[in-house]
Amino acid sequence: MAIEREIERPQPKLIPWTAKLAQVPWWALIILLMGVFIAYFLFTSATYQDALQFLIAGVRLTILVSLISFGTALVVGLVVGLGRVSKNVVFYTLSSLYVEVVRGIPILVMLIYFAFVVTPLGVQFLNWLGTAMLQNLAIAPLVGLADSLANLHIQDVEMTVRAIIGLAFCYGAFEAEIFRAGIESIQRGQMEAARSLGMSYFEGMRYIILPQAIRTVLPPLGNDFIAILKDSSLISVLAVRELTHLGKLNRSRTFRTFETWNTVTFLYLVMTLTLSVVVKFIERRMAFEE
Amino acid sequence: MKSSIVEPLPTDDDIITIDHVYKSFGKTKALIDVSLRVKRGEVCFIFGPSGGGKSTLLRCINHLEAPDSGSIIVDGIPVTEAKTNIDLVRAEVGIVFQLFNLFPHLTTLGNITVAQEKVRKRSKEEAERVAMELLERVGMPEKADAYPGQLSGGQKQRVAMARALAMNPKIMLFDEPTSALDAEMIKEVLDVMLDLAQEGMTMVVVSHEMGFAKAAADRMVFLDAGRIIEEATPQELFKNPKEERTKLFLSQILY
């Protein structure tokens, strides 16, 4: 019996060529091919080149808006994330309120709300503050500031600024949840060890918990940067001259719908796919260091 | 055991004074009217069945758990009072955990220096000098640049001890320091603890290592179901335990 079984042992088979073929990342190749296709037009067709030249300023503004609002969102997110894990009732309540409210509102609505409701209210408040300062204070260096506050006009606040504030406000809530999850993923014993060495809660956070949490948090943060870059197209409703808005303008300028939107789509894909390669690289490096 | 109505005042010799401490987690009563004194330089060995409240009692000493009632005074500072800055007490009380709790993002050296620099405000050079001395002492100076993930359990626990000792604590607490270790690594950890005991460090040890108790403990405390059942020197306790519960427990764990 034993010998028979020995003979019947299956021979290792060669991997069939179909299985090997299935392992090729076809999707990446197809994207690359499409990219080459559109790039070919961009270099040869005058219409595409015209569109590209018109749109490139929009790419710059899209990147700038994304960077500034994401940077702000990171700071907001870290503070609010700390609030979400805080034992301080006031800090926790305010943070949770912010996160829950923002997550329940569409980004587009939030942007419009910031541009046309929050900003006018803010300007009115600053006007009032400046006037009050002028009436009650006679300190030389502050007069200039008070004067400019009192005379601030709603149109002085550029739409780009309102858009950045709105985006940062929305994404601050998303980043806060990422930071919260990252902090909560660190074992309780780490904070206990830090505290029992005499560190304060904030020293424990700063030197022990956050440096560990940042590893888990980096890939999702990277993904959110890609998301904010895509969502920055929403601020085109505020007529901020970023890529999507310039796309609309180019179409009405040239009536070349196909060429315009092909180029816009191509430009977005170049940005997001490049970023996602970077995120994958970071992800792999983090996994390796564990 | 009935506690007398008039409590004896803590003498200067008592570095830890625990008075009528109660602690419960939900419906589970972890500590019931526990009172304990630990003298300066004493090695106090706490043992008993799992879930008996040993770890809770230990963690109450540096306020990782807050007792529901009762008072705990450590080196003259009432840790159970809200106005006490607990960080100052904790810097003087080292604790070694069952699961080491080393900081995985820092090297061995970094683990031992971080609190020295941030809490004791020592310079980087001085902190590293202290750390190297301690690594020498626990017998692993060559591991200074290794990360916790690259160390064995016994090595991790020795680094954890060095980390606590680097703060020059007045008291060392041990929360089942060998329970998570493979058998062949237990001795290297106990050796360091024995060294410490012989140098006169005040130690409160929660453990099942009866060999260590025999060799180093001044006093043994048997804790069961949240109450202190019996306190005695190791000689007395091993030879003729007074309480039935103690007898039963010892007969179950000793071969």
Helix content of chain B: 25-40%
What does the main sheet of chain B amount to?
Answer: 6 strands, mixed
The major β-sheet of chain A equals: none
Distance between the termini of chain A: 48 Å
Instruction: Please tell me how large the radius of gyration of chain B is.
Output: 18 Å
Q: Enter the CATH topology name of chain A.
A: MetI-like fold
End-to-end Cα distance of chain B, whole Å, is 29 Å
**SSE order of chain B:** EEEHEEHEHHHEHEHEEHH
Strand content of chain A: under 5%
CATH superfamily of chain A: MetI-like
The tally of strands of chain A reads: 0
The number of distinct helices of chain A, counting runs of at least 4 residues, comes to: 12
The top level CATH class name of chain A: Mainly Alpha
Cα Rg of chain A:
27 Å
Shape of chain A: flat
Arithmetic mean of pLDDT of chain A: 90
Structural features, described:
The complex is a heterodimer of chains A (290) and B (255). Chain A is 82% helix and 0% strand. With 290 residues, chain A is mostly helical. Chain A has a single domain, classed as MetI-like (MetI-like fold, Orthogonal Bundle), CATH 1.10.3720.10. The longest helix of chain A has 39 residues, at 46-84. With 255 residues, chain B is α/β, with parallel strands linked by helices. Chain B is built from nine helices and ten strands. In chain B, strands 6-7-8-3-9-10 form a six-stranded mixed β-sheet, with helices on both faces. A four-stranded antiparallel β-sheet of chain B has the order 2-1-4-5, with helices on one face. The longest helix of chain B has 16 residues, at 183-198. The model of chain B is unreliable at 1-5 (pLDDT under 50).
Index terms:
heterodimer; A: 290 residues; mainly alpha; MetI-like fold; 12 helices; 82% helix; flat; B: 255 residues; alpha/beta; six-stranded mixed beta sheet; four-stranded antiparallel beta sheet; 9 helices; 10 strands; globular; disordered N terminus
